[in-house]
Amino acid sequence: MNTFKRDNVFCHILLISCFFLCAGFSVYAIDYDYHFTIKCLEEPLNPQYSGGIAKNPEINDGLNGWTSFGSSKIETRTSKQGNTFIVASNRTQPNHSFSQTIHVEKNTMYTISAWLQVSHGKADVVAMIRTPNGDIPTGWAIAKSGCWSMLKGGFNGNFSGPAELYFESKDISSIELWADSISIQPFTLLEWKAHQDQSIEKTRKSKVKLLVVDHEGQPIPNATIMMKQTSSSFPIGNAMSSHILTNTGYQDWYNPRFKLTVFENEMKWWLTEALPNKNDYHLADAMLQYVQNRSMLLRGHNIVWENRDMLPQWAKDLPRPLLATAIERRFNSLVPRYRDKVMHWDVDNENMHFSYLESQTGENTVYYYKKAYDMDKTALLFLNEWGTIENPNDIDANPAKYLAKIEEFRTLGYNGSLGIGLQGHFDTPVIPYIRSALDILATANLPIWITELDVSSRPLQADYLRDVLGELYTHPGVQGIVFWSPWQPQGCFKMCLTDNDFNNLATGDVVDDFMRRINHQGLISNTNHDGYVETSLYHGDYEVIIKHSTIKHQSFAHKINVAKGKDSNTLMMKLSA
After folding, report:
1. Which of 10, 147, 275, 354 is deepest in the core (most CB within 10 A)?
2. 303-321 per-position pLDDT tens digit
């Protein structure tokens, strides 16, 4: 049991031991702790997992287990409330702090958490692991003076041997760095998979009890029930290019797989207004008609982009008044045209990594969201960033910075719809970091979507994609996934799913296998002696076919919906005309 370190407050986090069957044997696993808080607290909470393998995690045994990293002076101090913590002072370099040596095991997932404070101001602080292969960042926090901020992260154990945990403040080396409640928890790969399976059962599926009766309402034993999911409640899509309009091979491959899409380039400003004051939406309009004819959902990508390189050529060097006018014209041209036709808008793309429009016009990015919301209240407006879950070394858009951006929006008066867009352009994924990042972002209580998922071409590309999909889908905070694999004859952005004859590549097989696994197709069962079938189904709409030996050459179809919150409902189905 885990409780607050603060007196008279008890917040219990259940650490439930579970067993699951894998390859014929049982694996014992501690439940993963999804908890995170963005609140800056007067006193830190107890360490997650009681500190895991960290020695002296609550600094209750002096400096036992801790040493100075660099030339910093380390000591313990005690708060007015009686809480003891570790302090690094006399720091002359960002990484001068306190450290602890741990033993890392290969093929192990590690989660890290800590509570941090600085002596004055605030600083971006990252937990680092020094390994024989170099130093790796594991998680971020914005540490402040006067209260304790939580850091959460993770890393892959890709070697066996000693490693060193230390902390680094990116902004200021002269501040004192304080820490407490430090945790390092290892999980085997089988334990990690157990967490994913638990999450699927809890967040993606519901238990359903079906009762088959005859025309008189009497239960029918040994009836055959065949269930086929006709639509999933979890949206999965893929970007498309304009080649979809004319290439029948592309159409035949794409259409059966995806009912959600986004245009690769055809709504972007540099394409729709290549010359000033001359809008050309013929490709976007044709593609919109294509998706509407097939009842596909559409994300709007994007209205404007803070990256100067992604502006129309003519707009890159416009003086301030003319650029502001051009932006206004862009909004007035694009948003009303596709209002009520897109489900999402990526409004001001990548505004945590770039700020060209903001710097040139003087308008904070919040201005653009207010404007988009005033123009289209039917679509969900998204921040859309790369690096947040892909790159533990990203100081601009790490999860702590993402939450700070959301807080900035609210502080500056934006109270409209908002979604968390995570592009997901992976190289070599760090699965524990992905999970911890999603834990952090989920505390915003906003829709989280993976908007541009791919893995760059490299050895194990398909394996990495499979691992990433498994982690993203099973996290309770994620509400949808869109792949960024629009087909281009000259090659895709980072990841193709097919060759130019539309035969699946290994990555395409991963996507197909993933979509088959999360959709019940051809599920067959028989009612017991009381006429019941009990099962766990992925959320969505189903067609249920019932047959019985007493009725020859005839079956009866029913439609059901399985949704979150309907767990263990009994659905009665009649075997009669």
Report:
1. 354
2. 999 999 999 999 999 999 9
Q: How many C-beta atoms surround the C-beta of residue 219 within 10 A?
A: 16
Identify whether 384 is preceded by a cis peptide bond (ω within 30 of 0). no
Q: What's the mean per-residue pLDDT of the chain?
A: 92
Distance from C-alpha of 62 to C-alpha of 76, rounded to nearest angstrom: 7
Q: What is the number of residues in the chain?
A: 577
**What b/e string do you get for 39-57 counting C-beta neighbours within 10 Å, with b at 16 or more?**
ebbebbbbbbbebbbbebb
CA max distance for the chain: 86
| Tokens linked to 383 | 């921040």
Q: Give the whole-angstrom CA distance, residue 207 versus residue 199.
A: 14
Q: How wide is the angle at C-alpha 47 spanned by C-alphas 45 and 52, nearest 5°?
A: 170
How far is residue 308's CA from residue 269's CA, in Å, rounded to a whole number? 12
Q: Domains in the chain and their CATH numbers?
A: 48-190 (2.60.120.260), 203-230+520-576 (2.60.40.10), 239-511 (3.20.20.80)
The answer to whether the CB of 446 falls within 8 A of the CB of 418 is yes
pLDDT digits (tens, 9 = 90+) for 467-479: 999 999 999 999 9
pTM over 0.70: yes
Query: How many percent of the chain have pLDDT more than 70?
Result: 92
> pLDDT higher for 554 or 507?
507
Q: Which residues of 158-170 are buried (b: 16+ CB within 10 A; e: fewer)?
A: eeeeebebbbbbe
What is the distance between the alpha carbons of residues 261 and 251, in angstroms, rounded to a whole number?
A: 13
Return d(Cα 320, Cα 500) in angstroms, integer.
Answer: 45
